[in-house]
Amino acid sequence: MEDCESIVPISPYKFLEPGRNEITHSMSIKCPTTKVDELNLILNKTSCYGLFSSLPQNEEGYHKYDILCSVKELRNYKQFLEDNQCEFEVKNQTASKETLEGCGSGRICRLKTPISLSEAVDKVKKHINLPHLRLALAVGKTEESKIRSIALVAGSGASALRDAYADLYLTGEMLHHDILAANHQLTSVILINHSDSERGFLKEVAPRLESIFQNKVVVHVSKKDKDPLITV
């Protein structure tokens, strides 16, 4: 992070456009614990926006939610909430096309000082603690070519990276032709396996979850979990 001049999302997270389940209301919901599974099922099947999942129990026997939704979804939720003794508050919400600062898919990092591709490879190996990774050099580039910008997405990042302009793509996996397309657009690619690109975050999210649940839950990060693919 200290080596980066700037870090921004590749695809900034936006409120929905008017006319497409436009956000019109915000809701604060206090749901009895016995009804949480049913409420989660309803929310997951609909297009509520900005769902912050279930927060820790703020009162014994209840979970609190904060969501943004369209007037159509509001009607669906209200019926369930009224039928199941849930407390809720509804407020009008002005729809916005503005991006939510810092939110979105992937990240583009611009380095303060350019580094070589070989340096980038070494840094990635050290960070994820893997002895090997896969590198596809951009057309006309070598491992000593300098890079200034890096676009990264965990997992399978081709769809998010497709519109990102950067000297280097870093993701878990990409299809053969997506790699070739990137290389011919003068972008090199580092692949580190799908789950290896995600697994490092588990150590970050574990203490956050424990804090959310007020340390009433112990979160264990598996020491045996690993990517099914190995380099032999």
Features:
alpha+beta; Alpha-Beta Plaits; Udp-n-acetylmuramoylalanyl-d-glutamate--2,6- Diaminopimelate Ligase, Chain: A, domain 1; six-stranded mixed β-sheet; 7 helices; NIF3-like protein 1; DUF34/NIF3; metal-binding
Q: Please identify, by name, the CATH architecture of the domain at 105-196.
A: 3-Layer(aba) Sandwich
Superfamily at the CATH H level of the domain at 105-196?
A: NIF3 (NGG1p interacting factor 3)-like
Enumerate the spans where pLDDT stays under 50 for 5 or more consecutive residues.
15-20, 51-57
Strand content: 25-35%
Largest beta-sheet details: 6 strands, mixed
Question: How many beta-strand runs?
Answer: 11
Helix content: 25-40%
What's the gyration radius in Å? Answer: 22 Å
Family: Belongs to the GTP cyclohydrolase I type 2/NIF3 family.
Keywords: Metal-binding
GO molecular function, one term: metal ion binding
Protein name: NIF3-like protein 1
